[in-house]
Write a structure and sequence with these properties.
- The protein contains 3 helices and 11 strands, in the order ββββββββββαβαα.
- By secondary structure, the protein is an alpha+beta fold.
- 17% of the residues lie in helices and 45% in strands.
- It has helices at residues 116-119, 135-149, 151-159, and strands at 4-6, 9-14, 17-24, 30-39, 45-49, 61-64, 67-73, 79-91, 94-103, 112-115, 123-125.
- The longest helix has 15 residues, at 135-149.
- Helix 2 crosses helix 3.
- It folds into 2 domains: 4-131, Cathepsin D, subunit A, domain 1 (Beta Barrel), CATH 2.40.70; 133-163, no CATH class.
- Strand 7 and strand 8 form a beta hairpin.
- The chain has a 6-stranded mixed beta barrel with strand order 2-3-10-4-9-8.
Length: 163
């Protein structure tokens, strides 16, 4: 099977929703923003994708009996326990069954992070390709334009120092 070339981000089809995802070859696993995570007395895990503050939130409750736990580490070394389950996703026209960690990604630029275990053997990542322009990228472009106009004024405005 030919491997498709993807960029550093893409739109993912997940549970009937088209949502932006960061492709991160430095991350081992895939993480999906989940909220309202609950466990029933009979061991059924339930959750919703995203939360009410997200434009991708539908409120649909997803239930799973095929789940496990994992200790995750963030880039700062912090650890937490999270649930993992399988979800079907569509990436670059290809349907994949991914093992995903359910986590709060409300403060991240992308509500979904696709790690190397999900893309290994299926895709090639071209870091020069980017489908989605984030708000942070737009803000950086504006700042760089301001810097080009008058670097001294820019420095005084944002760093408060002169010569």
């Amino acid at each position: 099977m030919d491997k498709k070339v993807i960029g550093t981000n893409a739109y993912i089809g997940i549970m009937g929703i088209k949502a932006p995802a960061k492709i991160d070859t430095g991350a081992d696993s895939t993480s999906v923003w989940a909220s309202n995570i609950k466990m029933s007395k009979d061991g059924v895990l339930s959750f919703t994708l995203f939360d009410k503050s997200s434009p991708f939130y539908t409120g649909e409750v997803i239930e799973r009996t095929d789940y496990s736990t994992v200790v995750t580490r963030n880039s700062h070394g912090g650890e937490k326990i999270a649930y993992r389950t399988h979800l079907t996703m569509k990436l670059a026209g290809r349907k994949i069954n991914a093992l995903v960690t359910l986590s709060d990604r409300s403060k991240n630029n992308f509500p979904i992070l696709i790690g190397k275990r999900t893309i290994r053997g299926k895709f090639i990542v071209d870091v020069s390709k980017s489908v989605i322009k984030t708000e942070k990228n737009a803000q950086t472009a504006v700042l760089n334009d301001e810097l080009k106009q008058d670097s001294y004024k820019f420095h005084q405005k944002y760093f408060g120092e002169g010569e």
